[in-house]
Amino acid sequence: MNTLWEFLSMQDANVRFVTIGSVLLAASSAVVGCFTVLRKRALVGDAVAHAVLPGVCLAFILTGEKNPVVLLVGSFLTGWLSLVVIDLITSKSRIKEDTAIGLVLSVFFGIGVLLLTSIQHSGNENQSGLDKFLFGSAAALVGQDLYTFGAVAVLLLVSVVLLYKEFKLLSFDIAYARTIGLPVRKLELLLTTLTVLAVVVGIQSVGVVLMSAMLITPAAAARFWTDRLGAMIVIAAVMSAVCGAAGAFVSFTAPAMPTGPWIVMLLSMLAIFSFILAPNKGLLARYLSQRRVRRQMMRENILKTLFHLGEPTGEYQHSYSKNQILERRQLPVLKMQSALKTLSRQGLTQKSKQGWALTEAGKKEAQRVVRLHRLWELYLTQYLQVASDHVHEDAESIEHVLTPELEKRLEELLDYPTADPHQTKIPQSS
């Protein structure tokens, strides 16, 4: 507790620099990364992250010093050049974009490593710490770095706020953006520039190897929690900022622990958590939803089977044994028993010594399912010209998801039919 309070008080200027810098870099990268993910250009961020290394090295070779502004300009230029090369390769050859990205990434990164090795053997005393751009060293941030990177981070955030609607349209419907006269090409160039800037300002914190994770992971995690772009951006920025502060805290309490990799690891843990436990879109939520649907289908199939058993005589409240139900329709025995108990609790079936029978409410529900099944079979044969002996399986699936609105529409299209393609009576809606 004392350690946390000491960290929060931030009496050490270097702690303030590292924490504020990590939060700004993480949040700004996450905001831009949302548009990168939505435009399906995640790998481009990885290519740019690796392509900035030769820019850093060339800037140092030309100036002989580690001025953050100079290094920023150099890395920005080579990052931009990598995107130009990717576009040229994809537009002027038969090579696909993913292959072009792989080529550019490896070539630029290889050149960067060669230049970095050359600098290390040059004897220049100012080279110390330049290799930190490979894996990042947020702990090395000083006041001058913070001002430079902070200004870029604010520029990124302000640009996104001012052009939010345009970037949103560019991400979801670029054809419509062209139709209404938006300067699509200029907006794409600007968004690409912001992506490059986001990568450039982050490399000192996490390095070129892990920078793509800073750009993509928060956006990917936030995507599981919402369907609204504005909320996605806020969630991604908050996640990334919290992980940035947490990474700085870990580095402060355990000096042997590097800040950048911890930020990425915490973001990855959040992404895994979101992937599994996010409501509606997480694996657990999807599994539970699918299980509910399967159980509902099982119950409706049992009701439908009981209806079919009573249909020849019209005695729908007659009791039928489990064996009679299974003879009519093959169902998993244990799941059928569980479903019958659920139907009984819902008041749709009732149990007697002879077996199971539909209640009045169960009969109405069974009629609805049978009615949808036969309406859909008739629709397939009349409008899609499907043979009548090929429509049953499709109707078995669709009958469970047709809404009352679609049911009404089907009736209108089919002119309120009374029989299905097999000349079996279609139950009327009650």
From TrEMBL:
Gene3D superfamilies: ABC transporter involved in vitamin B12 uptake, BtuC, Winged helix-like DNA-binding domain superfamily/Winged helix DNA-binding domain. Keywords: Cell membrane, Membrane, Transmembrane, Transmembrane helix, Transport. The chain crosses the membrane at residues 15-38, 43-63, 69-89, 101-119, 146-164, 233-256, 262-288. It is found in: Cell membrane. SUPFAM superfamilies: ABC transporter involved in vitamin B12 uptake, BtuC (SSF81345), Iron-dependent repressor protein, dimerization domain (SSF47979). Residues 359-428 form the Iron dependent repressor metal binding and dimerisation domain. It is a multi-pass membrane protein. It comes from the Bacteria. Belongs to the ABC-3 integral membrane protein family. This is Manganese ABC transporter permease MntC. The gene is mntC.
